[in-house]
Amino acid sequence: MAVAKILAAANPFARLELEPEAVDVAVVRSHYRRLALAVHPDKCKEPQAKEAFQALSEAFEKLSSTVGQAQCLREAGLQAKAAKAAKVSRAARAPGAPGPMGGPPTDEERKARWWDTKTWEEFEERLRHRERAEAALRLRYEGGLRLRFSTRKMREHVRAAERSVEHLDRNAGMTESPLWPPESTQAAREVEEEVAKARQTEPWPGAANELLPNYNERLELNDPALALQRLLELLTHLRAVHRYCLFCGCTYDSAKDMDEHCPGITEEEHEEENIPARDAEEKEAGEAGEDPLEAYMASIDAEAEQQRQKGKRKKRP
């Protein structure tokens, strides 16, 4: 019953059995976990369980932020108006048929998702991991002025994470993902082909280049909330799917290995992990003798004094 209901749902809110209105993210997560338990392929043996679980997870991903909820509410409103105008009866749609959110995903598309797991236990671990990541990121970045000052750093992290996702996905044999850098997508290649054709008839040299998007601009990343949500999706994918930490710069052997040896989700946690080591080095240097910087400055002063003395000697009659 749950499988058919999820696949026939008209929008992400309906798939998670939520009213189409803004809701606390904790409620979204609670509904998602309850329904995921009912349709996860490891728990449900219905033929379309995989499709339902994928659709449910995509809905959760969209509604797990206030920005995503606002977008889905706008889309749901437009869909309702279109359905009313065309007098479309959703009841006539067969269970599992493609709805407004698109048809069932392919096996290749599933490979690139953090929720794609063989067992329920692995899914639970990844979900808990995502919750920890979300809490850590929001704690670090949300909060008035701090968030605005962190926007530039978040942009840098997003760009680095996108490149890492593409590299690791390609090495794993995964197909193109929405998490890849925009310039690496099929859409970008199609634009480049159009520009190449336009160069043949451009009114002046370089005119066709104006059609190329500025991928470094990324205006959407100037919105702290959007940038934070994008970073969360990227870090979740890197850590859950590839066991890769962006700030450690390495891949771990297992989730347990990552939990034991990775300092945390954010860059700050990695920096804080190194503070005791730096303090120990400074203390050791202090115990060993004079501070290296002070010793260097003292040598500069001594050399300058020596040069002054030489100058005095030369001036004597």
UniProtKB/TrEMBL annotation:
GO terms for cellular component: kinetochore. Pfam families: DnaJ, DUF4187. Residues 90-112, 266-317 are annotated as: Disordered. Residues 11-68 form the J domain. Residues 273-286 have a biased composition (Basic and acidic residues). InterPro entries: DnaJ_domain, DUF4187, GPATCH11, J_dom_sf. PANTHER family: G PATCH DOMAIN-CONTAINING PROTEIN 11 (PTHR21032:SF0). This is J domain-containing protein. It comes from Symbiodinium natans.
